[in-house]
Amino acid sequence: MAIDQLGGLTALGAVLAPLDGGGPARMRLFKRISAAIGLGVMVDGEQLPPELDLAGQLGVSTVTLREALAVLRNEGLVYTKRGRGGGSFVKASADVVQSNSLTRLQQLSVEELRDIGDEHYAISGAAAALAARRSLTTDVTRLRALVTRMRETADPFECRRADSRFHIEVAVSSQSSRLTRTEVGLQAELSAMIWLPQVAVDPADEANTPTLWWMRSKPRIRIWHGNWQITQRCPYSPADQITYGAEERMSPVDDSRLPAAVDSVGEATTDLVELIYGSLVSIGDALIELWTRLQADGTSPRSSDLESLKSAVVGELDARGPLFNGAGVVMADDSLADRQHYLEWWRADGGNRPVSQRLVLDLNPRSEYYYDYSDMEWFAIPRDRNEKWVYGPYLDYTGVDLYVCTFAVPIRLADGTFLGIAGADVPVSSIESRLWPQLRRAGSGLVLVNADGRVIVGNDPEYITGSKVASVARSGEAVPVRATPWSLVPLHTAD
Known about the structure:
four-stranded antiparallel beta sheet; single chain; globular; alpha+beta; 45% helix; 12 strands; 16 helices
């Protein structure tokens, strides 16, 4: 196979290694080959190996390979010639790669973009540390050749590909196939987006897409991007969009706009939170109604009785759409006749879930994977203080495996008996999309934080979701948001 001469065989070996991981094989194969094309490991006009050979090398059936090739053709990344000298050929034009990257960027939330950057920082750093100990002279020669290419090229597309190939070859030099495959995937997902040149974009798309708006309106966006020393020398480097640990602030704060901006964002946040709490009160009322009816019949409520709550829970999931990932009730200890702990929780439609699905967790106290919710903040505060509460943002890896805020309201009978909480997991990306119009109009320099100073959403690239504003506790200008433990912080008070 004709490939790039600068260490292509080693990088190509990672791309064409047998597939692993989960998900449909055709889509994993599509991502693998599209990554190789976008990164220049497979170059424009290159002919792919015969289907039987390529399928064998990748460890898939020819049927699966043909399905993946069909997707690649639909994306404009591969074309097929019939007859003598025919076959499948790579179509790696800059326009196709740029268009696909722009579409992907528009689909990401700021939190998702930050998460990709965090993973890239961890993987690239580990690969570089291992490469420093394990690389040979030939490995260093390949890396230097790529650096030279970045310095000398006048083509931004070629410069971006050389930068991506540099990172992949560092991983190759670490001698770790797992790190290399992960680096290939990360480069395919991230590099083309951060190297996007200035392109014409629909103003409505730009205004309503936080990641796209930042990349085009801010002088720089802070994403951890390895090998900064190399990329800053390239004439078409992402230096105008990416900074690695910059100390200067991205842009000055327009103080004259802040009071009105704080009021606007605060009102929008309160309205959103009260909408969420309204749904949870409805779910709680359904439980109280069920409980009261069972007690009137002389029946001790059991876990199976709570199945009738599904219609109330799913009704609120449908009403809130993508705002809710899941919702339900979490019961007080020993409140049910047959269970010490129990929850009736449903996850919303979407993705690979054609219908709402019940969340099943391990609630056996003797199990190694016991999900003990009794002392979790989102449950304990409503129970102990009888208050509505929101906990987060946090990565709920033991539950729904998303970056969420969990909202909860206490459920009590008329005599004060605590039955449990009605709750909902709200992805931070959903909060961002609801508040972004007000945040964008505020200009810059405003973040919404929780009581610990953790940023939920904001409009400054130095303080993206998950960052921490260390001085929020002593900031005299932090403005509490009604109905929440959150505050809005003008960033000039948090330096």
